[in-house]
């Protein structure tokens, strides 16, 4: 059952039983889900032994404002529940498994003369789904095999017995070339058709032995009756099946169903390869990347991958083999780390795939870094800078006829947005619509603070605007004594001209240049950030003004609500009971009546 929520200093109240715990931050967002053999001991470890925690975990603990938990019967149940909650909510401090593709399935429809066709949407009422397949190619290979072995219709007709009896349909080309036996005209009985469907289902389940036995017996029967052409057709189909099985045979056929997992890691990521084995053949192969969020061990990362991949690919195998052992056994599953034999060969094959994925990731990362360096080097060349501009800051103002004047500063590190470094500014010293004075104020405030805190200055400052705004920024820099230490430019919107201080002629960079696109991207991001902030400020102030007109609602009440909910939108979405907990029943009623108007 679900318990009441507790604050972080009430962790000692949690029960000493297996379960799942959930951490929420100040905005009541779920930030972490964990499992525990003992809820009380596990949660206490976050708050009692802070010295032993890494920096990421300490940061998470600082954000926790509320704890919820669910008690379960066993640690295994806790694992299952944790997996479901993480998959549903994607909390920011839980391990991130990067694999958001929608996988293809083969659907055997629930109707007269069922169809078999690929789909990515799972709607259980339509029929039985087989898969998911790790690739479209793997799925098409199975579908092609089935259509080569059996005469399964490919049309979308509604083959209701009444419609067939009324002769509503005519056979198509598929009938004339031998791919269909014409059930639409009643030339094939439904019982005969369903026998093919049953055999196709065996192939989709990976039970190749049953259709092989079926074709072998039909071949022998036809040969005994001297029907040699029919016997040859059955022999061809039997060879097709054996050829298909031989393509995916990787181990001793005596190996039954099992799951193979291998894991390799680096500082930030883990790479897990999964092979689903049935009757000695690989039916699914998949490699995924897991991003470490805290200080997870290889065992924790592997356990996460085991649960998510088995769930995703609907595995019911009781045996798992891996290259590393888990700290504790998984209830109902048998995990082995093989040292020799065919199972060891499977591990080596799986590891080969995981290592290749890791290598490709590293190469791709290197190419991205190379591209970033190329753009920054080009920007350095175009602007004649002494250093590579790997730290860029850009400023923009926003106001409507001087009302609610605000500004923004965005930061790009290595050519990418560093959103934690973004800053908003309320204009404090300027009256009326004066963009130049506002620019002087915010640039002065930003860099006086960096100097005071002894932090690094950027390698390039970009001002959204032409010579006027640029001159205003330069004035602030001169007053701080940093003019000449940091290059500063202005970018005018109309012609995308680049202005330098004390230079009357603008620089025109090629419109197709990657360096100009980077400057435009930085400028557009600063503009977006400023406009969004201005809209929020305007909304809050108009909301405050409107609330002030309600009898009994003063500035303190309004501020209390805004401090708690952070935005006007969240206040509008809150219930009367929730608001009453903050400002009391009478005022809550007045607020709700006002919102509903």
UniProtKB/TrEMBL annotation:
SMART domains: GIYc. It is found in: Cytoplasm. Keywords: Cytoplasm, DNA damage, DNA excision, DNA repair, Excision nuclease, SOS response. Residues 338-477 form the UvrC family homology region profile domain. Interacts with UvrB in an incision complex. HAMAP family: UvrC. The UvrABC repair system catalyzes the recognition and processing of DNA lesions. UvrC both incises the 5' and 3' sides of the lesion. The N-terminal half is responsible for the 3' incision and the C-terminal half is responsible for the 5' incision. This is UvrABC system protein C. The gene is uvrC.
